[in-house]
Amino acid sequence: MATSTGTNAASYGDCVAALRTSLSFLESSVSTLENGVSDFPRLVSVLKTAR
Hints:
This protein is an all-alpha fold. Helix content is about 90%, strand content about 0%.
């Protein structure tokens, strides 16, 4: 039974590590998108006046 518990703990540890890595990638993606779209309101007004 101890081996099963140890295996489960290792599996949960691996799962938590994978989730943390995924969260890190997600946060990075959100930051990149935020930087990419932060200028959209100004861009819309510039394009409207250019027409």
